């Protein structure tokens, strides 16, 4: 005989699958770099998911994983440690299946994200720093008898990396009719590391020659952990680029999948948003700027080496969430960030082929 909790899990899974069935895939947008006509750049636009970021895919996977593991039941409170975007998406799925949701987020999280979490019926539990979200989530889960979803541990394993229209399968099938259907590089940045894990595994599984480049911001341990093969590193300060860069080496970060890492200064990432706004006609979030800087760097490297091909990177979320921060001159000035010179250099690099006046730390050094 089937108990009522199994029946509840079945209908919850069905609701998530039906929601997926109603959804469309996200677009792959070409972004020409006039100075490098033989290198074709594409952005996978994850901002077009119902909850506005690539975390929509992750939240769906995490809920299905938890449900099918028997970790969630009727009335379970779902708790998540997040810098914001995952909590927005998880609040959406919690509401879809009728579960209460608590987001444990740093006080610095943008008001837009807090409003979005609350819009989907989630409760925001603010902590002082990004380092406190993990322990506080564990404590709340114990206190409330709830389930701590723990994206930073489970992101890499909750997604079906072989298929099931994951982000990698979607990118490679959308590339099929392009002049260079197998990208030379796929450029990601890491929050959990889950997206990079899915893409890197899929590439090996399918036998593609594409390489994975990860762009890391300042105030993140990932780059140094990769260079020194050290997963014990920790930092005090949080990343200015929301969604990416972590103060500890998360378990979903899998260095062996990464072919190269590039460290992008925050001012350059934020300056790239200005170039993207002009060339794409869209405002993007900070991590998309970080991704774009690494992609531009690789495009120029390919061009200089006489190599034709394609590069795919991720448009992680929209800039509308960051109008009072990255797009606000007073906010930038208060942090002594002057994006104008770097924005001009990025435009000159992309449109005229000029070298940029900075070097990015990278590992391993290009052959
Ligand atoms: C989470 C996130 C990323 C990185 O994705 P992961 O799969 O978690 O590594 C990039 N940009 C934004 C805005 C994010 O929220």
From TrEMBL:
The modification N6-(pyridoxal phosphate)lysine is found at residue 55. The keyword Lyase applies. Coiled coil: none annotated. Gene3D superfamilies: 3.40.50.1100. Keywords: Cytoplasm, Lyase, Pyridoxal phosphate. GO terms for cellular component: cytoplasm. It is an enzyme of class 4 (lyase). It catalyses: L-cysteine + H2O = hydrogen sulfide + pyruvate + NH4(+) + H(+). One of its GO terms (molecular function) is pyridoxal phosphate binding. One of its GO terms (biological process) is L-cysteine catabolic process to pyruvate. It holds the Pfam family PALP. Its cofactor is pyridoxal 5'-phosphate. Residues 25-317 form the Tryptophan synthase beta chain-like PALP domain. The keyword Ribonucleoprotein does not apply. Its EC number is 4.4.1.1. InterPro entries: Cds1, Cys_Synth/Cystath_Beta-Synth, TrpB-like_PALP, TrpB-like_PALP_sf. A cysteine desulfhydrase that generates hydrogen sulfide, H(2)S. The H(2)S produced by this enzyme stimulates respiration in M.tuberculosis, mediated primarily via cytochrome bd with a lesser contribution from cytochrome bc1/aa3. H(2)S modulates the balance between respiration and glycolysis, and also contributes to redox homeostasis. Probably eliminates toxic levels of Cys (which can induce oxidative stress). Belongs to the cysteine synthase/cystathionine beta-synthase family. Cds1 subfamily. This is L-cysteine desulfhydrase Cds1. The gene is cds1.
């Amino acid at each position: 005989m089937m108990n009522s909790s199994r029946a509840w899990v079945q209908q919850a899974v069905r609701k998530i699958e039906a929601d997926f069935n109603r959804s469309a895939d996200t677009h792959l947008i070409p972004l020409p770099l006039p100075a490098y006509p033989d290198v074709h750049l594409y952005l996978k636009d994850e901002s077009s998911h119902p909850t506005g970021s690539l975390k929509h895919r992750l939240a769906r996977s995490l809920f299905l994983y938890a449900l099918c593991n028997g970790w969630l039941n009727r009335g379970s409170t779902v708790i998540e440690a997040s810098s914001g975007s995952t909590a927005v998406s998880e609040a959406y799925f919690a509401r879809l299946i009728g579960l209460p949701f608590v987001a444990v987020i740093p006080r610095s999280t943008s008001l837009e994200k807090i409003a979005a979490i609350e819009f989907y019926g989630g409760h925001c539990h603010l902590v002082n720093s990004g380092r406190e979200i993990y322990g506080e989530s564990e404590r709340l889960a114990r206190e409330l008898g709830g389930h701590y979803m723990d994206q930073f541990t489970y992101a890499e394993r909750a997604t079906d990396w072989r298929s099931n229209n994951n982000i990698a399968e979607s990118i490679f099938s959308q590339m099929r009719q392009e002049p260079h259907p197998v990208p030379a590089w796929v450029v990601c940045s890491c929050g959990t590391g889950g997206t990079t894990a899915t893409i890197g595994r899929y590439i090996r599984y399918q036998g593609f020659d594409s390489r994975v480049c990860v762009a890391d911001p300042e105030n993140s341990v990932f780059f140094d952990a990769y260079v020194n093969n050290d997963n014990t590193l920790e930092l005090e300060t949080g990343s200015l680029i929301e969604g990416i860069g972590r103060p500890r080496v998360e378990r979903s970060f899998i260095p062996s999948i990464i072919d190269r890492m590039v460290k992008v200064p925050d001012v350059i990432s934020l300056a790239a948003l200005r170039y993207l706004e002009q060339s794409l006609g869209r405002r993007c979030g900070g991590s998309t700027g970080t991704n774009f800087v690494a992609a531009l760097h690789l495009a120029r490297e390919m061009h200089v080496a006489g190599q034709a091909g394609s590069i795919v990177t991720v448009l992680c979320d929209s800039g509308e969430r960051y109008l009072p921060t990255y797009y606000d001159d007073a906010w930038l000035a208060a942090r002594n960030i002057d994006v104008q010179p770097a924005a001009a250099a990025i435009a000159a690099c992309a449109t005229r082929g000029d070298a940029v006046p900075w070097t990015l730390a990278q590992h391993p050094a290009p052959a």
